[in-house]
Every structure is written in C-alpha cells, then in structure tokens.
Design a protein that fits this description.
CATH architecture of the largest domain: Sandwich
Number of strands: 8
CATH superfamily of the largest domain: Cupredoxins -  blue copper proteins
CATH topology of the largest domain: Immunoglobulin-like
Helix content: 10-25%
Bound molecules: copper (II) ion
Radius of gyration: 29 Å
Strand content: 25-35%
Structural class: alpha/beta
Number of helices: 3
C-alpha cells in the first residue's frame, strides 16, 4: 500500500509537471500503471493437472499397449482391463511398420483409438461404458494376422 501511495504521488507529480511544463513525459504515467498492475496477485496456478498416469481414484484409467518389439504383427498383450469412464490409451510402436490401436464395442462399432504411427508413441482418450470391447490395429491385414485383443471394461 505504501508503494501504491508513492506511485500515486509520483503520478500526480508528473501530472503537475506536464501541466506546467508542456507535453514531454508520457512514459512516467505508463510506468505508474505498470507498477500498480504488478501489485495485484498473479492469476496462475488454477490449471488442472493433465495426465499423471495411473491413479486408482477417480474415473480416469490408462491402458498401455505396445506393438511387439520383435516385429510380429501382434500387441504385447491380447487382454486388457479398464474401469468405465474416460480411458487413456497409451500406444507405443517400436516397429518401423505403421500401426495403431482402435477400440470397437461388442457391436463392432469403432469408439476411438490412436493415430497410425511408426517408431513412435501416441495416446488417445476414449469414453467407455462397462462391457467387452476389442482392440486392434486398423492397418489392413494386421488384425487378421493377430493384432487384436479383448478389452474388458468394468
Ligand atoms: Cu498394425
């Protein structure tokens, strides 16, 4: 508050100066404005933390899928389980061959999945109700060759 009073006095003084000395010092009033702004609390820190991984509380769970590092047309697991709600799919593809992870429900309707990637990682979020789903790679032929698994959502 002392600082603000000082700034006010300064501003008044400069106004007085301008009043009798002509229009020279516009920058001093700008400085006063900046000073009072910096004394207001910063408005940061309200952001929700995105990600954070496998907390058991809450409704977000993370599924980790990986294409077979040995180059087979397969994921490293053919079963997975998730909790109903928002599910994050983390997919790692160490192969130079393009793959993705798509999820389809029991009716065969695709409900989401990652982008096609090669030698990379991607993630996607899907909203899942309890039930049985199939996850698979959508590149033609890959699913048939074994790139699929069963996802149970509880
Ligand atoms: Cu594939």
């Amino acid at each position: 508050m002392k600082k603000l009073a000082a700034l006010l006095a300064l501003a008044l003084a400069s106004v007085a100066l301008v009043a009798c000395g002509g229009s020279s010092d516009d920058s001093s009033s700008t400085t006063a404005t900046n000073g009072s702004e910096s004394s207001t609390p910063a408005e940061t820190g309200g952001k929700a933390n995105a990600g954070g991984g496998s907390t058991s509380a809450g409704s977000t769970s993370t599924l980790e899928f990986e294409a077979d590092p040995g180059g087979e047309l397969a994921f490293t697991t053919d079963t997975a389980t998730a909790k109903a709600g928002k599910v994050t799919i983390d997919f790692k593809n160490p192969q130079a061959l393009t793959h993705d992870v798509k999820i389809e429900d029991a009716q065969g309707k695709e409900v989401g999945g990652t982008e096609l990637i090669a030698s990379s990682e991607d993630s996607a979020t899907v909203d899942l109700k309890p039930g049985t789903y199939t996850y698979f790679c959508s590149v033609p032929g890959h699913r048939e060759a074994g790139m699929e698994g069963t996802l149970t959502v509880k």
